[in-house]
Amino acid sequence: MTRTVESVVVRLSPSVTLIHGRCLDVLPVECDIIITDQPYGTGWIRGGGKQAGEFKRRKEGADWDVFDLAWMEKAPHRIAAFCPVQGVWDMCLRLPRPHVLKYRKTNPAPYGVPCEPIVSSHAMPNGWEKEAYNGDNSLHPCQKPLDLMAWLVDGLTVEGETVCDPFMGSGSTGVVCVRYGRKFIGIEQDAAHFETARKRLEAELAQGTLDFGGGAAAPTHNLSSEARPSKGENNE
Fold first, then answer.
1. How far from 176 is each of 46, 165, 218, CA to CA, in Å?
2. Residue 161 and residue 80 in contact, taking contact as beta carbons nearer than 8 Å
3. Among 37, 42, 59, 222, which is least packed, fewest CB within 10 Å?
4. CA distances from 222 to 77, 156, 217, 233 (A)
5. Angle between helices 172-180 and 191-206 in degrees, nearest 10
6. H-helix or E-strand spanning residue 24
7. What DSSP string runs through 140-166?
8. DSSP code of 216?
9. pLDDT tens digits for 53-63?
10. Distance, CA of 26 to CA of 162 (rounded, Å)
11. Domain limits of the chain?
């Protein structure tokens, strides 16, 4: 039996739309690409310790933590999604010409996996591997670094295109889209995480549009935190 629930649409700006609902009930949406960190179905949740680099891990049976590729049937022909190693083959079989990218963690958990695969429908022009610090997940238990998401958005889209994240979480993909001049549609079914993303993106939009010089990418060394570069800052 298919579960359908009413979704709530919140338009934060002409370029940012958030939808509180289950992605399978919302998709498809009008977008150019889906870039997302989908649930893995592993049950392992990483939480930050008291100091940067410390790890606390626990096994949970969260109802959202189910690796289900049904969303791909409602996706556009361009996608990029993090996935568990055991799910790479299944994802690749659903794409005409798949490419497997790699996220290398600079601070993997002790005895943990140092890399995560990203299955993409298209090749990356700026290399197939990205190294990034896996922060302390202050906003979401599966939060991805901003500079990692910036690598994907910058490499797989152009300014003015619309990115959809059907598993929005705390809105990291949306933050990067705002900074890089992309439109964003975020979908999240968890009420608490949706509210976190809404407040985070409202704060981002309130700071105004930044000019990075003719569509040039925002400097990624400033994307590892919530701090934004000021106008006119060197973009090298």
1. 22, 12, 9
2. no
3. 59
4. 31, 20, 11, 11
5. 20
6. helix 23-26
7. -TTPPPHHHHHHHHHHH--TT-EEEET
8. P
9. 444 555 455 56
10. 16
11. 8-222
Closest CA to 176 of 153, 209, 208: 153
Is-contact 94 88, C-beta < 8 A?
no
Q: How far apart are the first and last CA of the chain?
A: 53
* N residues, the chain: 236
Could you give the C-alpha distances from 204 to 63, 74, 141, 169, in angstroms and in order?
Answer: 30, 29, 21, 16
The total of other beta-carbon atoms located within 10 Å of residue 185's CB is 25
Nearest to 11 by CA among 201, 224, 142: 201
Which is it for strands 16-20 and 33-37: parallel, antiparallel or unpaired? unpaired
Does the pLDDT value for residue 34 go beyond 60?
yes
Distance CA 208, CA 137 (A): 26
d(C-alpha 113, C-alpha 111), whole Å: 7
* CATH fold for the domain made of 8-222: Rossmann fold (3.40.50)
* Sheet containing 16-20, strands listed edge to edge, beginning at the edge strand earlier in sequence: 8-13, 16-20, 183-188, 162-165, 33-37, 79-82, 115-120, 99-105, 129-132
pLDDT higher than 70, residue 222: no
0.90 exceeded by pTM: no
Q: What is the DSSP string of 161-201?
A: -EEEETT-TT-HHHHHHHHHT-EEEEEE--HHHHHHHHHHH
Which distant-in-sequence residues (6+ apart) come within 8 Å of 71 by Cβ? 23, 24, 27, 34, 38, 166
Model pLDDT, residue 54: 46
